[in-house]
Amino acid sequence: MKRQLHRPGAALLAAITLGLLAAASLPAAEGISNVRVSQRPGTNLVDLHYDFSTTATNPLLVAVAVSTNGGNSYDLPATHFSGDVGFGVTAGTNKWIVWDALGDWPDRFSTNVFYRITVSDVPPGMALIPAGLFRMGDTFGDGYSGELPLHTNQISAFYMDKFEVTKALWDGVYQWAITNGYSFEYGAQGKATNHPAHSMTWYDTVKWCNARSQKEGRTPAYYTSAAQTAVYRSGQVDVQTNWVKWSSGYRLPTEAEWEKAARGGASGQRFPWSGTNNITHSMANYYSDTGSAYDVSPTRGCHPTFATGNSPYTSPVGYFAANGYGLYDMAGNVWEWCWDWYGSYSSGSQTDPRGPPSGSYRVLRGGGWVSLASFCRAAYRSGNYPTGRSSGYGFRSVLPPGQ
Question: What is the pLDDT of residues 24-82, one digit of tens each?
Fold first, then answer.
């Protein structure tokens, strides 16, 4: 239905519920049921009541997705929820979520709005990055102009691989993919099965994410047109933002998601750890020199533990301590491909930004085994052509909640 400007006294939303889903790890009889949705008369507030049953003892995530086109897609970037939503919701009846629709969908009206409430466990090998605000950019003034202006972003919850994709994980998905309609220009290399896969192009990472989704029975995220019917499986396709099913399947993190995750819940730190704004070889695999005052490593050059044999001098994933979200190697080891085209930051606050609509370079983040300390800062931005390949390039996947 065509969106219309909200008129005083008119109903902003005609609420319809759709799809009561539970994570695959939960027993079939458990999950969300008895959803009731209503809009408070004369307001922009929507009340969602539901019952939640589970015998799981670990914390679970309750998420809400909103469709404004009758359930064809759930891609409205809605974040203004309060109540029994988010991480750590306990079981019970008459749980209550309030959506401030005006905050996410100002001056809009539709009788074709659907809601999807889901409960999910944290997938194996992934960490939950909770929804929330974070300050993006260089807070120390020792970076470069591309890391400014400082701005605040609201990011929805998502899961992220705890580790950079290893050669073993890459190979398992790759072998399935090439026998199921996928083709890759170069594939990937790796020093060992427990080291990060490297030297893949951006195009190949995106196709690999789709293959990982389909191998696990998930809906892929990336398609070859805005119709979102043909799954991206081959060639070099410059996927556009509206060609992506953002609430489905494995995908690359956006640049904002990556930086929020890298900061680990800490505010204003230079690196992905708290307690110090310095870096040494005991914290990350990078190239140390005297060019930065915060590089205080007693050993210089490539990491002495791993600079043996033939390059690349990558390290096993998980060798160093995790950040506050339980993520490893968010500084050093290999650069990580992100979704976004490289471009200037917006000066204003944004919700789930996805970068410029076009560009020449795709973003790389985090620094690598041959990178200087300054490149390993959480705010540092780099990029390369999507065809670019290097023994210092790798990636990790993210997964939307509620799958």
Answer: 344 444 688 899 999 999 899 999 999 998 887 776 788 888 888 888 877 787 888 99
Cut 0.85: pTM above it: no
Instruction: Using CA atoms of 79, 82, 88, 92 in order, give the dihedral in degrees to the nearest 10.
Output: -130
> Is residue 358 within 8 Å of 322, Cβ to Cβ?
no
Residue holding tokens 């109903």?
11
> 334 CB contacts (<8 Å, ≥6 apart)?
164, 196, 198, 314, 366, 368, 369, 392, 393, 394
**The domain 123-403 belongs to what CATH superfamily?**
paralog of FGE (formylglycine-generating enzyme) (3.90.1580.10)
H or E stretch at 93:
strand 92-100
* Pair of tokens at residue 262: 């890298």
**Predicted confidence band of residue 403 (pLDDT cuts 50, 70, 90):** low
What is the distance between the alpha carbons of residues 129 and 86, in angstroms, rounded to a whole number? 11
* pLDDT at position 24: 37
Domain at 13-121: CATH architecture: Sandwich (2.60)
The torsion angle over the Cα atoms of residues 304, 308, 312 and 316, rounded to 10 degrees, is -70
Q: To the nearest 5 percent, what fractions of the chain are helix, strand and coil?
A: 10, 25, 60
CA-CA distance, 255 to 352, in Å (whole number)? 10
pLDDT of residue 109: 78
Query: Which two three-digit tokens encode residue 185?
Result: 């220009």
